[in-house]
Amino acid sequence: MASGENQNEDFTSPTPSIFFDPGTHSASGRLGILQLKRDHLIPTILSSATESEYAEGDVVNTRFGSFPHTTLIGQPWGTQILASVVDTGSRASTSKKRKRDADDDGEGAHKPKLEPKKREVVQAATASSGFVHLVPPSPETWTLCLPHRTQVVYTPDYSYILERLRVRPGDHIIEAGAGSGSFTHAAVRAVFNGYASEKPLANGTQSGNRNYEEAITKKRSKRYGAVYSFEFHKPRAEQLAAEIKEHGLGDSVTITNRDVYEEGFCVGSQDDNRKAPDADAVFLDLPAPWLALKHLTRSPPSAAVVKAVTASSEAPSPSVKEDDPPAQALDSSKPFQSALNPNNAVRICTFSPCIEQVTKTVSAMRSLGWLEIDMVEIMSKRLEVRRERVGLQEEGLRGANASAATVKEAVQRLRDVEGRAKIFHGLQKEKQDEIMRKAEARKRGVKPQTPNGNDRETPKAIKDNIPPSKHDRLERAKKDLENRDLFKEGRLIHRTEPELKTHTSYLVFAVLPRQWSKDDEQKARKKWG
Amino acid sequence: MHSSIRPNSHIALRLPSGILKILEITPNTSINIGKFGVFPANSLLGRPFYFTYEVLDNDDDKSKSELRIVSASELHAETLGEHPTPTESRDDVNEAGVEFDIVGEDGEVIMRSNRLTIDDPSRQTLSMEEIEELKKAGTGSGKEIIAKIMASHMAIDEKTSFSLAKYTLRKSRKYLKRFTVLPVDVGLLTEHFTEKEAYRIMELRQEHIGLIGSWSNAHCANSSRVLFGEDGASQIGGGRWLVVDDTGGLVVAALAERMDILYQNEDDDDDKESQEEDVAPQTDNAVETPQERGHEKLEGVVAAPEPANQPNGMAETEATASNDTPAASTTSDQPQRPRRPPHQHIPQSTSRTNSITILHANNQPNLSILKYFSFDASNPVPNHPLYHHLRTLSWLQLMSPHDDPTYQEPEKLEDDALAAMKSSKRGNYYKKRRRWERTNMIVDETRQGGFDGLVVCSVMGPASILKECVPLVRGGGRVVVYSPNVEPLIELCDLYSKERRAAYVSRQTDPAAKVNGKAQTGIKIEGQEAYDALPEDDEEDFPVNPTSLLAPSLQTSRARQWQVLPGRTHPMMTSKGGAEGYLFTATRVLPIEGKVEARGSFFRGKKRKTAPDAAVQA
């Protein structure tokens, strides 16, 4: 399939984002994710640059060891990477590598493991223990490791939201309150359907398909999926924009630093209608979604409605009965421009933790003509699965319950204990008797007899029948352990994980159908009768 | 997805009773929604979705009833139990709240509390016969009936405002002649099947569909590169997902929706364009009715459909004299095809990126739900995206292709021998050759693996599926297994447990065990090799390679629905039980050869215990 590959080489369009097409191997300059544990992941932009504080170039230090980028670059995704021996000690005292060379000798105490230092990147030696897995980024892995700036929308919520919003490739979605960007990443995956700059025909497809794809592209210009993201907090918006760019998602995501309550959702110049978000779906993760709803209409809302909707938080104002003209308060200077796709029904989801927010949002939605209003909360949990071992054979072992597993076992143990006690008391008594006998004999002036063989034998015979002592039992359990397969013993159980998210937020869903005028109805009637 | 109702497509009507009715809308027919009325299909065609319509009966001819769009404010007023103008609703909200407060404190409005309510059916003075009479005589929308019923209720003013609202709502559900038009998509089908035949879709809910979509990382990959592994032959990635689906195709549809290959080309964004396009393109209309003609044909190859097998299409042509284009082109299209020279055949399932490969246990995959998206797996049409992006193969073809007759190359004939053949025989010859070519390509490519993800929604034992399929997933690829019940997945988790993995690794690296640590190293995977390396009795302990998946986790999710009404906000009182539905997710990884020593403390900290991937302790 060399031809396929060649086609790739002269493929002029941008390399797809690493989120959409990670390639076969990790590469320098691109994102890679080190997975330490299920919920412990470290995102890293891999770099082969030599300017680093470490002799080995850039290094990721984790609790499972140090991983120089040189060991991470060019690896097939999913590879298990062994930790390397990296001198982390000397870096702590000096910031520059050159300086460190000079100080080297004086710092011996700081350095548990030493590595020869050179100017060029050192080939790191493999450590004796520690590893991570190198996995490609996805919205799910990113959600688990992104730098938290605000509360994060987690996978159970965003997957349901995107499903209910029917967000599909080619759609435009507005997201307000971008926050840490976890929803942004999930949304862009959902809407992505290619790059505008790319040739209509993607690589590798064979001729039949080609005709088909060409037919499609010829038919009409393709609409490319887009995320319009709004964030009120400037540093957050900037940081998110930087991340999006770093992840190669800039073509599909537009981040705007704006107060959407005041300024609405239209981006670009006012005369340029094409620049409007033209949204098919809206996701509002805002403290007061009802204040933003007035900007999400098909036609200018009447002043009364606006007042009713925005005043929701204040005391009731009963006097909004007159048939008002369109609200001028909004922005009298600018012509009205809808942020919504005029040809499609628009779906919305608001994400609010408090029930009061929901009440206000829903009543604003009702005033503004949204339909199919539905409120749900998502309750998700993860389960842990493990084996629970119970039984007397577990005595002294870790991670198991050494109580009796059955009545039979319990009875046996009780018998054993009783048996031991009995024998012990028997022995005690014998000893006592002997002492008494000896004392008697002494009293009578007879020389004490040396204990004959018979006397010794009796306890020995008994000893064989003595139930095992605790010490014996522990010894035996330890010895047995070597021949046991603990991974398949015990009862398989599952339970909810210890940390439970009992409430994330209430989700309000609604739909705003497209506008249907008398003209439209006339047209449809003419066409279909 | 289409923004307005198109002829011969599937739509859903939600009736006042809450029942979803899915039907195919055919021009010039009438749609019967039982006791809620009858109306002409044409009065819905070309109209947008999500509106609620009221059937206004025409006394002379029931089939000529008119439809009226019920405005949003009217609908909301009813749910709120009020009669306001749109802007008023908020104020009424407050009033309602006030009333509610007073009930508790003020004796004067005590009649609004339910203290005096008498539970007696005789309080409704209208008899059943009388109501039936009203219904028969009734023109209008059913509002009159409701009004009469309310008027004849002796104690209507004894009801609290909330119970009155509830009563009105209940009556509206019964008598209002209304319906809401909804587009048929994966979400709606899920809802529909959950209500009616949940077992058919393995009791999947939208929560699960969302989670499956997210965790499988399925997305549109039409701009992904075609890349190959180190052997230069097996493809790695490229947006290809391997699916085992026993839900009748719902999971395939959900994935296809995310990959932009479920819906046929959208072409009706604005009215002018759509008007032209509805008339012009033959291709589009030809596919509108494939499910009608599909039944007879089983060979999954596009070739020479007999013109006779489409009674529906013919009937349509006669019926639609005025609006002839869609049906006419369907019929005229058919007989032409056999006459085309064979090289114009569009090969199926050729797309190298953005594809779904289905593994099926029977001879043919069960993808019946795809019919709602105008795709018939047994008779696919080339202008449906799934024609190019969907691949199917049976387990036999995957596990042992040489035992499958379709994998054997059929006899190749010389050109002159072909020319001498009867045309029907020649057609057959080509059909066989094509089927073989396609099967060959699909089987070989699937066996080479490199898939971006594996999605399993099957009644088969998950371990047996994962044993064969996980090696076909690329490193870093996702594995998602859904099960309605938790037990199969618990067992699966156990097979990938930390302890078992440790035992597996130590057995592999233990020289005494005569195994030379033959872990899977490269990307090139040859099915069972890794397992063959272990002694026989280990097969029982390690039915799957526990080191090939990272971070196996088990989760479940349920959406709880709430009623949001002023002063009456609370979770729904009842909801559906049944299977809870669980999801197993993990990442395919490539373990390195030999003994790997873990580092760090693995005993639980304050938080999060037993991360299964916490490493292998030797």
Condensed summary:
The complex is a heterodimer of chains A (529) and B (618). Chain A has 529 residues and is of the alpha/beta class. Chain A contains 16 helices and 14 strands.
Number of helices of chain B: 22
Query: Which runs of chain A of at least 5 residues are low in confidence (pLDDT < 50)?
Result: 1-13, 92-118, 199-219, 313-331
What would you call the shape of chain B? flat
Contiguous runs where pLDDT drops below 50 for at least 5 residues of chain B: 83-111, 268-338, 513-533, 603-618
- Give the largest interface pair and sizes: A-B, 141 and 140 residues
What's the total count of β strands of chain A?
A: 14
Q: How far apart, in Å, are the first and last alpha carbons of chain B? A: 54 Å
| SSE series of chain A | HEEEEEHHEHHEHHEHEHEHHEHEHHHEEH
Can you give the mean pLDDT of chain A?
80
What's the alpha carbon Rg of chain A, rounded to whole Å? 37 Å
Class computed from helices, strands and strand pairing of chain B: alpha+beta
Q: Spell out the CATH superfamily of the largest domain in chain A.
A: Vaccinia Virus protein VP39
Largest sheet of chain A, in brief, is: 8 strands, mixed
Instruction: Give the mean pLDDT of chain B.
Output: 75
Percent of residues in beta strands of chain A = 15-25%
Helix content of chain B: 25-40%
Radius of gyration of chain B: 30 Å
- Total domain count of chain A: 3
Q: Please give the order of strands in the largest beta sheet of chain A.
A: 9-8-7-10-11-14-12-13
Q: Summarize the biggest pleated sheet of chain B.
A: 8 strands, mixed
